[in-house]
Amino acid sequence: MPRTPRSPAPQGPVTLAMVARRAGVSPQTVSNALNSPDLLRPETLERVRRAVDEMGYRPSRAAQALRTRSSKLIGYGIQPTPSGTAAPVMDRFLHALSQAADEAGYRILLFASPPGEPTLEGYEELLGQHEVDGFVLSGTARHDPRQAWLAKKGVPFVGFGRMWSGRQIGDWVDVDGASGTDAAVEHLAALGHRRIAFLGWPRGSGVGDDRAEGWQRAMRRHGLPTRGRRAQSVDDVDAARTAVKPLLDAGATAVVAASDMLALGCYHALRERGAVPGRDVAVVGFDDSPTASILSPALSTVAQPLEAVGRECVRLLLARMTDADAPPERVLLEPSLVVRDSTPGTDAGPDGPKAPTAPDAP
Predict the structure, then answer these.
(1) 57-115: per-residue pLDDT in tens?
(2) Which of 46, 167, 178, 340 is 20 to 30 A from 205 in CA distance terms?
(3) Range of the domain at 22
(4) Judgement on whether residues 314 and 169 belong to the same structural domain of the protein
(5) Domain count along the chain
């Protein structure tokens, strides 16, 4: 019988990337097929082997050794904390991530990332030195270049945070901020509050907009007005103290803040006008930072399950290292409301409690 002719051999040496394109998989998957075939699905392994045979690919011993070497290191870029803010959430996340990685036999390799919007600085250098097996990303934002760049290179990664854009790339773990602020409004409404304001971050922040949406959703569900009851501030105590004043002047009896830092600014604004947080105006923060429980009064706040976030990030990253072609996995975790003295019970009337220093709302 006549033999089926093979496809003409490409000009020049056949590379792993060329085989990956022929098989329609990532370079990492081709590497797994050659060195750890048990990690792949049978159909994926067969497709890669067929492409290897058709193209006559033969990896060099040196290249093969390089690709199979595992550093047991996971890269994490850490940004400086802006002046006037605190980063207790990311500190706790990093501890949780490190602990989860340690239990899996890995170590977290920290490298400096510049302040501001996410960039590729640091990532290119580490990959050029072949020092990490994958990356955990935080501070994800709209137009973030890191996910697409890492995916194109076949480098495993997982994000703490959603992409906040129409195009979702890769695996991520996040906390449902909208659910947290929704629960805060539910708690305040059950106490009799009707003039519930929201102090958030400037619009355009994915995390901040998510938390604002939860407040709006709950307010609509209870038939409560939102117009004129929302203010915005950067995550700074003095800026928050100034930003919340119009809400208090308009008669807000409760304030839901997008962070504990903003809630602390609200505390300062209330004390400036002789009012007492919790007694005159209820305040709820977000993040359950270390200072929340030692404030006077202790701050009710929304706690993020950071230990679970750390565990899930490591789990998803190791799964991606094992099978680069598995469908993306996205995990959205529920936060929990921690009730303390800043939201006491009330015998409010139909309009809810009123701050004694603020005029009645129209």
Answers:
(1) 776 543 443 445 577 899 999 887 654 444 567 888 999 999 999 999 999 999 988 87
(2) 340
(3) 16-68
(4) yes
(5) 3
